[in-house]
Amino acid sequence: MFWQKELETMSRDQLADLQLKKLKETVARCYHNVPYYQKIFKEQGILPEDIRSLDDLKKLPMTKKAALRENYPFKLLACPMRDVVRIHGSSGTTGKPTMVAYTRHDLDIWSDCVTRVVCAGGATPDDVAQIAFGYGLFTGALGLHQGLEKLGCAVIPMSAGNTEKQLMLMQDLGVTVLIATPSYALYLSEVAAQKGIIGNLKLRIGFFGAEGCTPEMRQKIEENFGIIATDNYGMSELTGPGVSGECEYRCGLHVWEDHFIPEIIDPETGEVLPAGSTGELVVTPLFKEALPLLRYRTGDITRLDYSPCACGRTHVRMEKVQGRSDDMMIIKGVNVFPSQIESVLLGVDQVGPHYLLILRRKNFLDTLEVQIELIDGSLLEDFRQLQALRNDIRARLKTVLGLDCAVTLVNPNTIERFQGKAKRVVDLRNQPEQ
Ligand code: DLL
């Protein structure tokens, strides 16, 4: 189902014309209203009039998260505060959050983008949607909330946590659509199975995002719940969820190109890479009045596929995010993404999907310990089998990563579960040796 069919299926030529028009407006807005950008433009000798084609995008400076931090809270605002109607902030981490602001127009476009995502993934006004993202500064909950409500779903603003109550409402209210991080969805599915209530649920679609999810993890959630799980992507600086989402063919996430221009760059050199290359996603939003950003470096690693999609949408598809460039662990010189490890672990029958990656430094050398829960804890009593399983996992990891890791098998239900974004990497390398 389409939300804005004309816009979602417009020809690539029309799309390019629209992008250029909106890019010129965005650049002018940044130049005239945001001293930070005006200064850079002057230093680099660029004027808004220099943007005559989409190719001229390359002339524009890229923006990093540091710019938002340095201009905390609102020095990058391009409108008077009285025009701002909503404020969100980046989730988690330490220090001051990165604040983002929206005018009424920004909220309107944002919610349309999210409605496109949920329609593409199969939601309809008949659905009852439970939102298990935390409501607050995080854009996930209110973002999906607005989009689903705009579509006409019955939205339950449950927020994160309180797993028992989540499941009770899912059962009692006949919830058909679940919104959560994949890690929390997995946990919910496990608890539902333990309680023997899966058969009572009417769940049919999951909209999972805000963190990565390997195909293996997705399959596990789908099997547990008996649903279709779709992936959607976004980040607060770009607006929140709704930057891209999967259609029914699930062959990449359509980026709403009438509102966002995506590029792929080499994260090391910043050079724009040719179509089809894997690299860091850089996005220029084209509609933001309150906080316009030019060529924002997302830090997320993916690739773009411009080939036509069977659904009829003409907007480019981005591959599932492989990880963040700053997620990448460099261990003994080897580049390792947590998602690679997750794929290996989920291919082993005897272990469950909950794991922890612990990085340590011993004698100036980095080591990686992979802790993973056994499905059957009684295996811990059988030394021989345990050893064989540990060696098997170690060998599989070595084949994929080219790296020797320590594997620790632990009892079921001993590794922490997450209600928001999962934190699976524990980096102890800068702590005294242990
Ligand atoms: O996570 C926005 C969002 C909420 C997207 C709900 C989808 C659903 P932030 O908190 O600013 O915003 O975090 C943005 O989360 O740069 C990615 O690294 C990661 N991320 C978001 N969606 C996905 C996804 C929201 N589908 C950061 N797959 C981004 C992988 C994702 N990573």
UniProtKB/TrEMBL annotation:
InterPro entries, alphabetized: Adenylate-forming_Reductase, AMP-bd_C_sf, AMP-dep_Lig_C, AMP-dep_synth/lig_dom, ANL_N_sf, PA_CoA_ligase
Reactions catalysed according to its record: 2-phenylacetate + ATP + CoA = phenylacetyl-CoA + AMP + diphosphate
Keywords of the record: Ligase, Nucleotide-binding
Known EC number: 6.2.1.30
Pathway: Aromatic compound metabolism; phenylacetate degradation
Job description of the protein: Catalyzes the activation of phenylacetic acid (PA) to phenylacetyl-CoA (PA-CoA).
Protein name: Phenylacetate-coenzyme A ligase
Species for this entry: Yanshouia hominis
Lineage: Bacteria, Bacillati, Bacillota, Clostridia, Eubacteriales
